[in-house]
Design goal:
five-stranded parallel beta sheet; Rossmann fold; globular; disordered N terminus; about 300 residues; alpha/beta
């Protein structure tokens, strides 16, 4: 199907930086011929936003750098399609939390002090843009395989800057983050925030895979610059799923007692209020009464 018939929405890589766009093509290959018009629009969008990136860095950079963060942010982790959106939607009603918006995710470098934040936020989703390299992207961006100590330190620095930006925008210092890719980044998150809280969502793997296939079709249809092979992507998912689960099981030993709660998808779906009450109690989070009033 041609791009014109698909009526693709604006591409999220409009929020990338010129160096990121160049690095992606060098690492994962050029767009296929039928997607070259999309690639040209991405290039134009990146350059059109360049003045905005510079202006916001100059205007707000120092204020963001000086924004304090709560020492115990809450991270919602677990494999994709396990209920992250529902949990985040419910907990975002708690007025104590700062949460990311579509603007933060899609255009991070336009309203922050560091260009590498664009790499941080969008890295996991490059697999939908360059599906032929999904396995390599997942291993590097989620499992941190082949990532040097300097690159990990840069990741941590940029992620902290992003959280400071969100706190500055919202006026709230305690962050609530929903990011399945963080399931493979627990050691790095604990180095940043030793008191961080984690909510681990889990779901029947067969249900996860069943939900993942239409997700692949939808996101690749919107963002891909290479013709996707859905069967290959499913094989990649089947191979990578246990690797992420095994890493999580190993990394759990690093999380102090009282800083992680496990939630099943079905439990959250059928009994959301009682599930949240349990999570707040297990993590010693204040304010459940306030949250309950907003549900």
């Amino acid at each position: 199907m041609s791009e014109r018939k698909q009526r693709r929405p604006p591409h999220y890589l409009f929020g990338a930086t010129p160096s990121l766009w160049r690095d992606l093509r060098e690492r994962y290959g050029d767009p296929d011929p039928q997607f070259r018009s999309t690639a040209r629009r991405i290039q134009w969008g990146i350059w059109l936003l360049a003045p905005e990136r510079c202006w916001e860095s100059w205007r707000f950079g120092r204020a963001i750098e000086q924004t304090p963060l709560h020492p115990a942010p809450v991270f919602i982790v677990g494999y994709w399609q396990s209920g992250h959106s529902l949990m985040h939607h419910l907990m975002a009603n708690d007025p104590q939390f700062a949460t990311t918006t579509l603007l933060h995710a899609a255009l991070p470098s336009c309203c922050s002090t560091a260009e590498p934040i664009a790499r941080l936020v969008m890295r996991r989703y490059h697999g939908y843009v360059f599906p032929r390299s999904y396995d390599a992207i997942f291993r590097r961006a989620v499992l941190f395989e082949g990532v040097s100590a300097d690159e990990r330190a840069a990741w941590q620095r940029c992620y902290r800057q992003l959280l400071q930006k969100v706190a500055w925008h919202t006026g709230r210092s305690r962050l609530l983050s929903r990011n399945a890719a963080h399931t493979g980044r627990i050691p790095q998150l604990l180095e940043l925030f030793p008191d961080a809280k984690f909510i681990h969502l889990h779901r029947n793997p067969y249900r996860v895979f069943a939900a993942q296939v239409p997700k692949w079709r939808s996101l690749c249809g919107a963002w891909s610059l290479q013709t996707p092979n859905i069967e290959q992507l499913v094989e990649d998912t089947v191979r990578l799923y246990p690797l992420l689960v095994q890493k999580l099981l190993a990394d759990r030993a690093l999380i102090p007692a009282g800083q992680i709660a496990d939630v099943g998808y079905e439990e959250l779906l059928t009994n959301p209020v009682s599930t949240l009450r349990r999570v707040y109690a297990e993590l010693d989070l204040p304010g459940f009464e306030s949250l309950e009033n907003h549900l």
